[in-house]
């Protein structure tokens, strides 16, 4: 993919999760300020690593605060302003009841049009509290999407995935279950809208009490580029053009009929 015009400005990685106060963000040189959100609590501690290929890796962990202490978040994400978002996010429900969570990352990007997109999710649920079962499912909260995963362009959902319940049971405890879904990959292939300045991934899910869910996700959005014709195609077009000229000349000198056909796109 070609560069979309990264701007080397001093930015800050800013994350968010649950119901709490804004945490101080770690300063790093980025092309914009990505925002990871789960609920309304800003998460700012963690490391940011610049990779040789121009992407950035965001790694960290943070637990809830006094207002909402019942969660633990771990993340290991790679972002690129060309653009894509992929990596792993894990949430542990530290409460004694099943809870809805909303986890999202938003990445500012340079505008381009039109776009192609694709995304994927692999979800794994773990029985951490030893009650012999664990489950993760689409959120029951108002406004949540039909599946756990949503890919967004400029804040509007364009891709919904994983509209199922993932669960496990075990007589001895400690069970796990994994499931995955993707669309438009490999290579972003789904025609999308114009991109004004933002792409994102949103996870709306309900997680059983005392258990952990890990989500490995990818959302890629690329500009549509013209595909050059191979040399053989140009030779064919030239030959067809020559035949058409000959037919026109013959039509001028005798009772010949020219039938024009449109080649399939």
What layout of secondary structure does this protein have?
Blueprint: E1 9-12, E2 14-16, E3 27-30, E4 35-38, E5 41-43, E6 47-50, E7 56-63, E8 71-80, E9 84-93, E10 99-108, E11 115-126, E12 133-138, E13 149-153, E14 156-161, E15 166-169, E16 176-183, E17 190-192, E18 198-207, E19 212-223, H1 231-253
Parallel strand pairs: 2-4
Antiparallel strand pairs: 1-3, 2-5, 4-5, 4-10, 6-7, 7-8, 8-9, 9-19, 10-18, 11-16, 11-17, 11-19, 12-15, 12-18, 13-14, 13-18
Explain what the structure shows.
This protein has 265 residues and is mainly β. The strands form three sheets. Strands 2, 4, 5, 10, 12, 13, 14, 15 and 18 form a nine-stranded mixed sheet that branches. It has two domains: 9-223, no CATH class; 228-265. The radius of gyration is 25 Å and the shape is globular. Mean pLDDT is 78; it is low at 1-29 and 243-265. It is built from one helix and 19 strands. It has one helix spanning 231-253, and strands at residues 9-12, 14-16, 27-30, 35-38, 41-43, 47-50, 56-63, 71-80, 84-93, 99-108, 115-126, 133-138, 149-153, 156-161, 166-169, 176-183, 190-192, 198-207, 212-223.
């Amino acid at each position: 993919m070609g560069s979309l015009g990264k701007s080397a400005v001093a930015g800050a990685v800013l994350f968010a999760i649950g119901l709490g106060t804004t945490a101080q963000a770690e300063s790093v040189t980025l092309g914009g300020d990505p925002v990871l959100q789960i609920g309304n609590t800003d998460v700012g501690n963690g490391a940011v690593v610049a990779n040789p290929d121009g992407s950035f890796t965001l790694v960290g962990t943070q637990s809830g605060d006094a207002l909402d202490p019942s969660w633990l978040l771990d993340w290991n994400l790679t972002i690129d302003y060309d653009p894509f978002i992929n990596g792993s996010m894990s949430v542990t429900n530290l409460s004694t009841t099943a809870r809805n969570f909303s986890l999202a990352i938003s990445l500012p990007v340079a505008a381009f049009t039109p776009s192609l997109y694709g995304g994927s999710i692999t979800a794994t649920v773990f029985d951490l509290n030893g009650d012999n079962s664990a489950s993760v499912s689409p959120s029951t909260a108002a406004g949540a999407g039909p599946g756990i995963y949503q890919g967004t362009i400029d804040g509007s959902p364009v891709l919904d995935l994983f509209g199922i319940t993932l669960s496990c049971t075990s007589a001895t405890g400690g069970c796990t279950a994994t499931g995955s879904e993707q669309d438009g990959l490999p290579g972003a292939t789904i025609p999308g809208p114009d991109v004004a300045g933002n792409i994102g991934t949103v996870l709306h899910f309900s997680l059983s009490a005392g258990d952990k869910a890990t989500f490995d996700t990818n959302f890629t959005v690329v500009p549509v580029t013209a595909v050059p014709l191979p040399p053989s195609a140009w030779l064919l077009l030239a030959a067809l053009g020559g035949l058409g000229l000959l037919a026109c000349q013959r039509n001028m000198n005798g009772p010949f009929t020219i039938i024009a056909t449109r080649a399939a796109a």
